[in-house]
Write a sequence for this structure.
């Protein structure tokens, strides 16, 4: 088998707080292969962004990686610090966030930003960088790219700005892109444009993508595999069609059933009782057990069973039971 | 059936000109932005009317005119038989207004962080000198929270719980109509399910009428009795959910439906919609959708289509059959 582009093993993130140490990411493992889109879903606060930020070395202190390993193309990167990490981040990992303005410098034209990024990471001349900058804008579908190259970020609409960010994330030809809620702030029509663009570019270049979102529809259409997170842990991991149509973890099942489209024609939506626990008050055993319809005795004290691809971290998984 | 709300030829124009000195120096005229243009619709009593459309289509502006946060530039808002702009009897207008409440997208920003939940919920009643003893506790129970939550502060609650508090506050003045502006857009699906179920229950129990503003088509399909689709400030199509989702008549509605991601859309590859919403200050001639419309003809560039009845709904498109 070929080495996956990204491989996370038992990753944990800790934050010391006044009420003690909390673990927003707790023993998470997954791989992403070349040309593959891994969707990461889960309720707000599940630790999706924390896990992504840990990979790119962008955790805000006092949050830090407290255990596990991160491998990029066969090289272990979690011990990298400061300058080394910054270099790697720009060259090998591209980033797309919900708010395009966080990734763009308001004082530089988009052409200069693209050219600078390429000059830093690719062995090319200034002239070549300028040419490639126009091509990069054309590729992400910005009309009149040659004229818009000297525009500043604020002169673009929200959807166009996100295209510029995608061009910027991909221009140094990274092997991995982390997209954290890239379309959450956009209209459905623009969202469809951005997702289709991301899919096409990654397929063409073989880029691996971590797509973080809580929109199950976006996951269904874009992702090859999906990781479901709950309270910092992986609840389920597998092929997107399997996980969405035949969830094994009762949490995944609950999430699917509470989306309006899944219960079409039904008067009431399925509700998962309660709310995700606060990190300071994490229940013992399976963190989902207080809300779980299939809870058993052992769920409240035994550590979770080991997780594997196509499986759920659950003592009583739903076996091939489809969402009603 | 009884129309509780009747909106007629509603229009709102914003003056977005630069200051006069800049206008003279840069030789520019006044810039007027028509956010809502000639919109007509009715909301039957005890039903949910949903307004959908992309960002900037004028949904919130209509909602704000309905609750009286904004004055119309032209047109009428009639609620419960009272024309809110022309009615001479101030007491009548005040009474109708007190029956209309609004809840907003951001349950974080719309609650005063320094007030206890009890005071937040009772405020609309207290400000009119009404009786507030036990009111907050009763309403908290009604929205599925605990009466003892009345003594807490907003930061002690999750997003979904805060939206429940907003709903409890809206219910305090015994409204008959609630304008809900993106009530679940900031919430994730599991919390959204709780809030939508609560809204449905309250509609049944209290006989409420809703104007639901959102761009989430799955929410609309689940909640609405009737749907109006807005594009660049104009209503382009109106129908019941089944007709609209199964057989959209306007190409714009069709485009929105195609673009929405589907939970069963594994690996779906469809050409995404073309173009973006045009500049509302300088809208396209004729039908405002024509630059993005896959079937536009000459007439679409020249003449603005009127809204006309078609099937079980209404549509403003020259080519709709
Ligand atoms: N500085 C901090 N101190 C304590 N807890 C924190 C801190 N920063 C984040 N957290 C917690 O870490 C957890 C994980 O947060 P994260 O942002 O990864 O969630 P998420 O899954 O991305 O959610 P969302 O969908 O809302 O973006 C949350 O419970 C959050 O409250
Ligand atoms: N106070 C104002 N001054 C100037 N322009 C305004 C004002 N309020 C709204 N607009 C403009 O009116 C148009 C309609 O805005 P509105 O907020 O009603 O849209 P919307 O459909 O609610 O969009 P969204 O989905 O983003 O909330 C937009 O072009 C907006 O920029
Ligand atoms: Mg996040
Ligand atoms: Mg709005």
């Amino acid at each position: 088998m070929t080495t996956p582009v990204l491989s996370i093993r038992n990753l944990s993130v800790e934050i010391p707080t006044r009420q003690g140490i909390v673990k927003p990411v707790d023993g998470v493992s997954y791989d992403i292969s070349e040309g593959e889109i891994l969707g990461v879903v889960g309720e707000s606060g599940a630790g999706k962004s924390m896990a992504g930020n840990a990979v790119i070395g962008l955790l805000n202190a006092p949050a830090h990686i407290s255990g596990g390993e991160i491998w990029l193309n066969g090289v272990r990167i979690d011990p990298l610090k400061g300058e080394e990490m910054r270099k790697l981040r720009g060259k090998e990992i591209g980033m797309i966030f919900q708010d395009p303005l966080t990734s763009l410098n308001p004082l530089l034209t988009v052409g200069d930003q693209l050219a600078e990024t390429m000059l830093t990471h690719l062995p090319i001349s200034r002239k070549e960088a300028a040419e490639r900058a126009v091509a990069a804008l054309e590729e992400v579908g910005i009309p009149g790219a040659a004229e818009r190259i000297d525009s500043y970020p604020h002169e673009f609409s929200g959807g166009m700005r996100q295209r510029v960010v995608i061009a910027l994330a991909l221009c140094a030809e990274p092997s991995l892109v982390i997209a954290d809620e890239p379309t959450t702030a956009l209209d459905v029509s623009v969202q469809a444009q951005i997702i289709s663009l991301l899919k096409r570019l990654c397929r063409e270049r073989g880029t691996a993508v971590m797509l973080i979102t809580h929109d199950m529809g976006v996951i269904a259409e874009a992702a090859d595999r999906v990781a479901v997170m709950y309270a910092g842990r992986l609840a389920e991991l597998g092929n997107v069609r399997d996980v969405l149509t035949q969830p094994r973890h009762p949490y995944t099942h609950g999430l699917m059933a509470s989306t309006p489209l899944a219960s079409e024609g039904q008067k009431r939506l399925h509700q998962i009782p309660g709310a995700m626990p606060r990190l300071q008050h994490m229940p013992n055993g399976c963190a989902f057990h207080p809300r779980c319809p299939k809870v058993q005795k052992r769920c409240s004290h035994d550590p979770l069973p080991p997780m594997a691809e196509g499986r759920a971290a659950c003592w009583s998984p739903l076996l091939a039971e489809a969402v009603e | 059936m009884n129309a509780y709300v009747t909106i007629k030829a509603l229009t709102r124009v914003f003056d977005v000109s630069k200051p006069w000195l800049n206008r003279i120096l840069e030789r520019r005229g006044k810039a007027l932005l028509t956010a809502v243009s000639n919109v007509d619709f009715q909301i039957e009593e005890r039903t949910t009317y949903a307004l959908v459309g992309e960002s900037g289509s004028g949904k919130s502006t209509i909602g704000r005119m309905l609750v009286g946060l904004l004055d119309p530039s032209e047109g009428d808002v009639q609620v419960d038989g009272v024309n809110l702009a022309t009615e001479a009897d101030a007491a009548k207008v005040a009474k109708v207004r007190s029956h209309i409440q609004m809840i907003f997208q951001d349950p974080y920003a719309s609650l005063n962080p320094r007030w206890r939940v009890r005071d937040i919920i009772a405020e609309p009643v207290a400000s009119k000198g009404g009786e507030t003893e036990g009111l907050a506790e009763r309403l908290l129970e009604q929205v599925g929270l605990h009466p003892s939550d009345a003594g807490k502060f907003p930061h002690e609650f999750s997003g979904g719980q805060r939206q429940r508090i907003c709903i409890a506050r809206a219910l305090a003045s015994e409204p008959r109509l609630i304008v809900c502006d993106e009530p679940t857009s900031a919430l994730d699906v599991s919390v959204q399910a709780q809030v939508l179920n609560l809204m449905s229950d309250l509609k049944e129990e209290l006989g409420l009428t809703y104007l639901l503003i959102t761009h989430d088509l799955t929410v609309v399909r689940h909640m609405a009795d009737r749907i109006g689709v807005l594009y660049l400030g104009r209503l382009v199509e109106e129908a019941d959910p089944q007709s609209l989702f199964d057989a959209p008549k306007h190409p714009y509605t069709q485009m929105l439906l195609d673009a929405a991601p589907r939970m069963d859309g594994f690996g779906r590859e469809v050409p995404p919609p073309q173009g973006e919403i045009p500049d509302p200050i300088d809208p396209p001639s004729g039908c405002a959708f024509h630059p993005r419309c896959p079937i536009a003809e000459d007439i679409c560039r020249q003449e603005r289509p009127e809204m006309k009845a078609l099937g079980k709904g209404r549509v403003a498109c020259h080519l709709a059959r």
